Amino acid sequence: LDAPRQAPALRNLTLEELIAGLHNGLRHEVLEGNVGYLRVDDIPGQEVMSKLRSFLAANIWRKLMGTSALVLDLRHCTGGHISGIPYVISYLHPGNTVLHVDTIYDRPSNTTTEIWTLPEVLGENYGADKDVVVLTSGRTGGVAEDIAYILKQMRRAIVVGERTVGGALDLQKLRIGQSDFFLTVPVSRSLGPLGKGSQTWEGSGVLPCVGTPAEQALEKALAILTLRRALPGVIQRLQEALREYYTLVDRVPALLHHLANMDLSSVVTEEELVTKLHTGLQTVSEDPRLLVQVVRYQETSSGPEDETEEPPEMVSEVPEDEASRRALVDSVFQVSVFPGNVGYLRFDRFSDASVLGVL
């Protein structure tokens, strides 16, 4: 294994030098749709975070606070400092109380250290109602893996990308005797983020919520955020449709309450949304006829003014000849007898009572 990068001596560095070094492993911008993007290639330790706290809050975090969702890109982050974990988690932790997020065992000192979120942050926490997506790759390792796993277990972030490397939190390079050979070994390990006991990401890696090649992870994340941005409107339109059209009016209040309190935090695809809505509404209504479906309309050659297929018109006149009448019946009604002597009748349009009387 390659030896980990050696941290520079920080005490002799000026603030300007620390900022310059930080820029090499940190990039941020606001993407289309008011989505914040923060790429972190190295997790600074507590000493750097403390010295640059005001700079980070004023020049980076403040610009991202106004966004409607955040993408934290850890695809190129292969390590970092354990002491930097609380700073990253704390700004994304929506709660007002400190949270125990991990316990780290250090073998050389045979000690354990509990990792807690900070009692307060400089500036503001990222809003609890805003989505966070973490991007990972097969190179994401060490401290970056721990951060991704903690945020996933907290249900604070959707992890998108590839399974992480499953490395170690801290590595140490040891000389073998007086030779020119060296051995790099793990010296620290996570005992289980968020008190999960023996469950940890080390060795197996962090499994993403949505698997996709790393180079396509940002595009996939933006598509997920577009869907999630539309969720409130979808729920509102469903509620309006139930109020106006559902005939079992005594069940409408329970259905509206169910929609208003649905947990959609894990929904990342259109298929998952439809399944969740369909199952939930049928369970509450006990009505198998209440269906939630996705209907896609294809564009026609008529141009943008005629993008959807018009429903069939209601029949208002009856042809005079018998052959035309039979053809009309066949175009309106579909009649079959299925195996088991099951009758099937389908009609897609209605007719006037006078027409039905003649037919």
Automatic annotation (TrEMBL):
<dbReference type="GO" id="GO:0090658">
    <property type="term" value="C:cone matrix sheath"/>
</dbReference>
<protein>
    <submittedName>
        <fullName>Interphotoreceptor retinoid binding protein</fullName>
    </submittedName>
</protein>
<dbReference type="InterPro" id="IPR029045">
    <property type="entry name" value="ClpP/crotonase-like_dom_sf"/>
</dbReference>
<feature type="region of interest" description="Disordered">
    <location>
        <begin position="298"/>
        <end position="317"/>
    </location>
</feature>
<dbReference type="GO" id="GO:0006508">
    <property type="term" value="P:proteolysis"/>
</dbReference>
<feature type="domain" description="Tail specific protease">
    <location>
        <begin position="14"/>
        <end position="213"/>
    </location>
</feature>
<dbReference type="Pfam" id="PF03572">
    <property type="entry name" value="Peptidase_S41"/>
</dbReference>
<keyword id="KW-0675">Receptor</keyword>
<dbReference type="GO" id="GO:0019841">
    <property type="term" value="F:retinol binding"/>
</dbReference>
<dbReference type="Pfam" id="PF11918">
    <property type="entry name" value="Peptidase_S41_N"/>
</dbReference>
<dbReference type="InterPro" id="IPR005151">
    <property type="entry name" value="Tail-specific_protease"/>
</dbReference>
<dbReference type="GO" id="GO:0008236">
    <property type="term" value="F:serine-type peptidase activity"/>
</dbReference>
